[in-house]
């Protein structure tokens, strides 16, 4: 009964979401801090004051949310952990100040960045050229490539898990193809500077889509939004799921040229007119307006990451330098699977990938300082 297409489908496997709430959950890179009061109030007030809005379809274009996202990016420069917040005021650090204002025409909002990525794959990649991506990166990219039947050109990482930027751009040029990677990358946490990404775009010298997934950039990477006017083929994907305490809201967005945004909107209107429900739109706007809160969360997470990384190194772990809200680490003589199982048996979930080449590592999401203290107690025994 099922199609051949379906038979060949290999779905993404997410981190465990146990119904047993007693686990400390450090396995899915979610934000350990609760959604802020202003978002909770905005949602409650909206539902109470406008129950009829739940009977009607939401704004298909998320107009207010696009406005709010653009304003938030202009206030923060797109990196929350470095933005200077004073009360409700946020200003970008000099490193992140944008050379132009992001406008709402440069924003597309979707039902999580996973959906946004699917639309981008549909709009900009096809079977005519092998899409370039790193060997170890967000494992949803190869899943989408399989879903849409697109061939891949997989570029190995260096031994220290840095991206081979020379080889990636050389292959994109040779294939005349697009490229996708996460920056900072997952599951490694390593980041490329904006200058390194600019050099890749220049070397690839292509008009094919070049997608940079900035799911983790708020934790200390450098955003490539500043490069958008130099490279009309550059597409930036971002999410509320990590730095904005919003994984449960399912909000992701694209920052790109207005032409690219129009193309993705055509895909959306051919698949699902109303990807973002009315409540999530209200929550997203309220979240953008309270960027100072997420700045303070991101700063706490970065501080906890540095402290935890230092702790692991003193205990003999090899820790990949991270610019994200997680660390990727291994210890000689301790199998990744054993580390994962031991930690789980003590009530804490981390992530282990059985993938050859990174099977020695575990990926640990940075939680609150209390959660990290509990984890350190367990790690002492490994
Ligand atoms: C978590 C993650 C996403 C998914 O984000 P959603 O908005 O929750 O769909 C996308 N890309 C990377 C690299 C991620 O780690």
Question: What would your notes on this structure say?
Answer:
By secondary structure, the protein is an alpha/beta fold. It contains 12 helices and 14 strands. The protein has a 5-stranded mixed beta sheet with strand order 4-10-9-8-7, sandwiched between helices. The protein has a 3-stranded antiparallel beta sheet with strand order 11-12-14. It has a two-stranded parallel ribbon with strand order 1-13. A hairpin with a 2-residue loop joins strand 2 and strand 3 (about 90). Helix 2 packs antiparallel against helix 9 (about 280-290), helix 4 packs across helix 5 and helix 6 (about 165-175) runs parallel beside helix 7. The radius of gyration is 20 Å and the shape is globular. It starts with a helix and ends with a helix. The model has no long low-confidence stretch (mean pLDDT about 95). The protein binds pyridoxal-5'-phosphate. Pyridoxal-5'-phosphate (PLP) binds near residues 213, 215 and 252.
How many H/I helical runs? 12
Strand content: 5-15%
What is the CA-based Rg, rounded?
A: 20 Å
Shape: globular
How does the helix and strand content classify structurally?
Answer: alpha/beta
Helix content: 25-40%
Major sheet: 5 strands, mixed
Listing every helix as H and every strand as E from the N terminus to the C terminus, the arrangement reads HEHHEEEHEHEHEHEEEHHHEEHEEH
* Unreliable sequence segments: none
> How many DSSP-defined strands?
14
Please list the strands of the largest sheet in the order they lie side by side. 4-10-9-8-7
Give every kind of bound small molecule, once each.
pyridoxal-5'-phosphate
Q: What integer is the average pLDDT?
A: 96
Q: Gap between N and C termini, in Å?
A: 50 Å
């Amino acid at each position: 009964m099922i199609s051949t297409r379906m038979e060949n489908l290999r779905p993404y496997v997410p981190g465990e979401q146990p119904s047993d709430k007693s686990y400390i959950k450090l396995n899915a890179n979610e934000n350990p801090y609760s959604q802020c009061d202003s978002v909770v109030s905005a949602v409650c007030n909206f539902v109470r004051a406008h129950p009829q809005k739940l009977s009607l379809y939401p704004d298909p274009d998320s107009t207010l949310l696009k406005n709010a996202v653009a304003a938030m990016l202009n206030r923060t420069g797109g990196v929350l952990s470095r933005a200077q917040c004073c009360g409700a005021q946020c200003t970008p650090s000099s490193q992140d100040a944008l050379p132009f204002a992001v406008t709402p025409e440069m924003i597309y909002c979707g039902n999580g960045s996973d959906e946004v990525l699917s639309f981008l794959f549909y709009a900009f990649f096809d079977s005519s050229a092998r899409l370039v991506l790193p060997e170890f990166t967000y494992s949803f990219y190869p899943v989408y490539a399989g879903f849409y039947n697109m061939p891949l050109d997989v570029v190995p990482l260096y031994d220290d898990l840095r991206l081979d930027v020379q080889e990636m751009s050389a292959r994109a040029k040779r294939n005349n193809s697009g490229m996708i990677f996460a920056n900072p990358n997952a599951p490694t946490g390593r980041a490329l500077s904006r200058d390194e990404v600019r050099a890749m775009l220049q070397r690839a010298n292509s008009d094919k889509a070049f997608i940079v997934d900035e799911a983790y950039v708020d934790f200390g990477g450098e955003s490539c939004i500043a490069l958008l006017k130099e490279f009309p083929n550059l597409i930036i994907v971002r999410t509320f799921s990590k730095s904005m305490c919003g994984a449960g809201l399912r909000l992701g967005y694209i920052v790109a040229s207005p032409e690219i945004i129009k193309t993705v909107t055509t895909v959306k209107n051919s698949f699902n007119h109303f990807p973002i429900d009315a409540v999530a739109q209200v929550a997203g706007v309220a979240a953008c307006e309270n960027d100072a809160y997420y700045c303070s969360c991101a700063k706490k997470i970065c501080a906890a990451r540095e402290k935890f990384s230092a702790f692991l190194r003193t205990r003999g772990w090899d820790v990949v330098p991270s610019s994200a809200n997680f660390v990727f680490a291994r210890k000689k003589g301790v199998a990744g699977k054993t580390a994962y199982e031991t930690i789980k048996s003590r009530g804490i979930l981390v992530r282990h990938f059985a993938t050859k080449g990174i099977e020695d590592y575990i990926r640990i999401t940075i939680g609150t300082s209390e959660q990290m203290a509990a984890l350190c107690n367990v790690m002492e025994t490994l």
